[in-house]
Amino acid sequence: MELRVLRYFTAVVTERNISRAAERLHVSQPTISRQLQDLEDELGVTLFNRGSRTIELTKAGEYFAAQARQILALTDKTVANIQQDQGITGEVFIGSAEAPMMATVAKAIQTLSQTAPQVQTRLYSTDANDVRRRMQAGLLDFGVVMEPTDKTGYHFLQLPGTTQWGVLVRRDSALGQKSVITPADLQGQRVIMSQQKGAAALIADWLGTSTIQYTTVATYNLLYNASLLAAAGVGTVLALAGIINTAATNLIFVPLSPTVAVHASLIWSQDMPLSPAAAAFLAAIKKD
């Protein structure tokens, strides 16, 4: 199985049409059709349900497409990091959960732009669960995750500063009139909860009792969309401070009491060596 064939395959998946994929790749349509048929023969599965106008993926095709994209992304990342001229070149891939402590990462990137100006930084915003998956697949050099989190198999560096949990609610709501939110205030509330691993357990510990009953009406991995639900009055979002700017909006952040303060950590694999570009970034963040 050649990388060239994987690129043909992913182009067809994106375009849903062999002719458009062939035009994009500047190859003939029969060439792509033959390569795809050979690929299916090699794998022993049908990847496409071929229609008259569009091509749809089978279940096996959907799985293979996801894997092919990861293989190509890892290949491109590896090639970029080993093709070095003078000085440090390449790319640094950083996946981050939403956290105010990303300001430290931003400062390190600024330092890196001065010490290694040919290095490019690729930021990928997602939740901590996806950060781990992508790091395990070798697609990210670093991850920024909120604590508490399992760091087994990772080197880590705690980032300076903390943030706190609270609720994001409409200003005109009953909770929006409070200065702090106590466990009793969540009784009977419609709650929108973070999907971050450990978030539910952290809130359960804060509640300190099983008698407080609330309804989880939705979950989120990135806070912006959850904030739209809060603005629409769907429910009370349990969230971290400092992520959504509530100025000039109908939302307000109200901290929990007792305070639940957390910090973030930068993690990187113990098993995979850092590229020169990634090592330069790590040096920059340790310097800052």
Could you list some keywords that capture this structure?
Arc Repressor Mutant, subunit A; D-Maltodextrin-Binding Protein, domain 2; 13 strands; six-stranded mixed β-sheet; 39% helix; single chain; five-stranded mixed β-sheet; 288 residues; 23% strand
Q: In words, what does this structure look like?
A:
Strands 7, 8, 9, 10, 11 and 12 form a 6-stranded mixed beta sheet that branches. A 5-stranded mixed beta sheet has the order 4-3-5-13-6, sandwiched between helices. Helix 1 (3-15) packs across helix 2 (18-25). The chain is globular and about 65 Å long. The protein is built from 9 helices and 13 strands. It has 3 domains: 3-80, Arc Repressor Mutant, subunit A (Orthogonal Bundle), CATH 1.10.10.10; 89-161 and 264-287, Periplasmic binding protein-like II (D-Maltodextrin-Binding Protein, domain 2); 163-262, D-Maltodextrin-Binding Protein, domain 2 (3-Layer(aba) Sandwich). The mean pLDDT is 89. The two termini are 45 Å apart. With 288 residues, it is of the alpha/beta class. It has helices at residues 3-15, 18-25, 29-43, 59-82, 102-115, 128-136, 199-207, 223-231, 276-287, and strands spanning 48-50, 55-57, 90-96, 119-125, 142-146, 154-158, 163-170, 190-194, 215-220, 236-240, 251-255, 261-262, 264-269. Helix content is 39%, strand content 23%.
